[in-house]
Amino acid sequence: MSSHFLLAAGAEIPNPDAHSQSGDAVLPTFGSTVADAFSLLATSTAEDAVRRVRKLESKADPEVLHKLRVAFRRLRSLWWAYGPLLDRKDARFRCGEFKSLANAAGKTRDWDVLKDLLDADPSTKHSIKPLIELIDERRADALSFSRRTIGNAGVERVLEQACTGARTQLESRARGLVLVEFAEDRVSVAEKALKKRVKRAASQSGSDYAALHEVRIGGKKLRYLLEFFSPVLDGGHRAVIERLTSVQDELGRLNDLVTSEALLREYMFQLGEPCLVEEAIGYLHDQKGYHMGKAQEILRAQW
Questions:
Q1: E-assigned strands of 61-181?
Q2: DSSP element (H, E) containing 193
Q3: Is there a contact between 48 and 24 (Cβ–Cβ < 8 Å)?
Q4: How far is CA 165 from the centre of its chain?
């Protein structure tokens, strides 16, 4: 991403390895306009994604892939937040690009998660060691795919065009809007949508993973918005972030189990160890049932 673009957006370059609740984004202040706030958030998040892409070229660390996927998810949430002020067709196209790039990183990340889950169970660690080795081979193939897909996508160009185009639209469409009011309104919309999803999921008597997954998606969106706009929101939103964190942790574990089980079923014959695969699937399936029940308990208790 060009330095000219960064300077024009007025963004400070964040340290991608420094931990912060807001995902290393440069946050807006009360003095920011609605358009300026977008530029600060979009530019810093896009820069973080570009850094992860460059690291991916030389480093296959699971954390690089995870943070790269998170960066693209955060960009999708930011485009959703500003959706009413953006061209609908263009915003849908940009979000589609971000999703495709996140999925490309996820191809490798899913194998990392599967391996971590199986390694975490001491009772099966020795017996499924041959399966772990086969998973490592598949992970290497997936990494080649992720690197090739992301490398050929021209991520830096894609993100610069997306940020510049959105900023141009906002310069006219966001004129006269007050950032505090805009942020509160968008957070309120996301919170109401999440509450509906939580009510639906908590009322289920059986195992409805789809409803819990919708809660996870809605929760991530709301949490990202609260983090983006935290300097201009009232302090009451901090409690919401804390509640979201505990719920999201459990839903995240559940999602990892569901994704890993599906991955093993998809590659059962390619892996070539049907008995070991069946054993691993059984373990993941049992864990999935436990965490599904636990997630519903947390939702009923906290929401």
A1: none
A2: helix 179-202
A3: yes
A4: 23
User: Could you tell me the CATH number of the domain that includes residue 297?
Assistant: 1.40.20.10
Q: What are the residues whose beta carbons fall under 8 Å from the beta carbon of 56, sequence distance 6 or more?
A: 64, 65, 68, 105, 146, 147, 150
- The CA distance from 295 to 62, in Å, is 26
Q: What is d(CA 25, CA 19) in angstroms, rounded to the nearest whole number?
A: 10
Q: What is the extent of the structural domain holding 37? A: 3-302
In angstroms, the Cα distances linking 13 to 69, 164, 296 are: 19, 17, 40
Burial degree of 161 (CB within 10 A; 0-12, 13-18, 19+): middle
How many separate domains does the chain show?
1
CA–CA separation, 284 and 118 (whole Å): 8
- Contact yes or no for 156/56 (Cβ under 8 A): no
Residue 122: the pLDDT is: 66
Q: How large is the average pLDDT for residues 70-99?
A: 97
The pTM assigned to this predicted structure is: 0.86
Separation CA 205–CA 294 (nearest Å): 13
pLDDT tens for each residue of 105-163: 999 999 999 999 998 876 665 577 889 989 999 999 999 999 999 999 999 999 999 99
Count the neighbouring beta carbons within 10 Å of the beta carbon of residue 271. Answer: 18
**C-beta contacts of 199-205 below 8 A and 24+ residues apart:** 199/303, 201/296, 201/299, 202/296, 202/299, 202/300, 202/303, 204/296
